Amino acid sequence: xxxxxxxxxxxxxxxxxxxxxxxxxxxxxxxxxxxxxxxxxxxxxxxxxxxxxxxxxxxxxxxxxxxxxxxxxxxxxxxxxxxxxxxxxxxxxxxxxxxxxxxxxxxxxxxxxxxxxxxxxxxxxxxxxxxxxxxxxxxxxxxxxxxxxxxxxxxxxxxxxxxxxxxxxxxxxxxxxxxxxxxxxxxxxxxxxxxxxxxxxxxxxxxxxxxxxxxxxxxxxxxxxxxxxxxxxxxxxxxxxxxxxxxxxxxxxxxxxxxxxxxxxxxxxxxxxxxxxxxxxxxxxxxxxxxxxxxxxxxxxxxxxxxxxxxxxxxxxxxxxxxxxxxxxxxxxxxxxxxxxxxxxxxxxxxxxxxxxxxxxxxxxxxxxxxxxxxxxxxxxxxxxxxxxxxxxxxxxxxxxxxx
Length: 404
Known about the structure:
By secondary structure, this protein is an alpha+beta fold. Helix content is 34%, strand content 18%. A hairpin with a 2-residue loop joins strand 7 and strand 8 (131-136).
């Protein structure tokens, strides 16, 4: 087998509950469709019936790794999720996440998982060192993604198992439903969470101790050291490369001066600058922030953020890196309180929603309401004023959850 590959895929038919191992294609095919996304695209093209709709049992849900996954290469915890997109209905949807699910899937003996069919009842897939089985997940249906992270590890008896799961958004096949892994990471593009929910697959849990075969370990280590040196070396025209924890602190002083936040659906540039360039920076200086790494990753973009003041003081949020959290969960709706921003981000994550998709949809409604084109009659009594929390934030989140 080529270096970097475990040599097989796990095939899962949820309708018949049949699980089988399939050998990978020959070397020339792997080189032609290199990487998890390339191989998944070929499988989707070859096997998906043309008349298939995204939420049909015939849609194919794939969790795929590439030849570098699970090796010492920098940021090699990567895993790609590929489906027929639930957002367009006719194109390939490809999302990805880091964390530990990609490397752990390799260590469990598989290069990827190809899932077809749909279960009648909620199930989860447990993979342990080359042995896979479907188990009943009825008692976990309705649990949020944060709960699932701990419940699944307790359920399988492996405290370091990797977990990829959906929350209530995926179960109800909502637009923007995502798949969450290792607490901080979301795969959201293509509506993959909704596809997973349509199959009644609550979670994939993996554990393994197998090593990934490498053709020339010494050469790979040499290349890794070179890559890592380049990662931390600033390049011309870039203010970000080389800054420790850049994605974790992208809202810092440099970013605050040069970046623009999608605040109030792009209708308030001054408010955006104040929120990003002042409020977030001042709050982050007081907060207790702790980086959370992924497999073999020197960047550590996800982090925990203990809110230092205000209504949510003491709450520890667990966002991933990137600006979508600050924009999607609150900024787009005009919520200018940093503490509320991090709390709202966690509530969206718990539901298993992509914060960007939900924020964009809600921001449109806020702007229409502010412009008089929607009323309380249209919104079920909610007053969609910029930054307004409609009374209890808990109730508002519950309203959003129930209405999808």
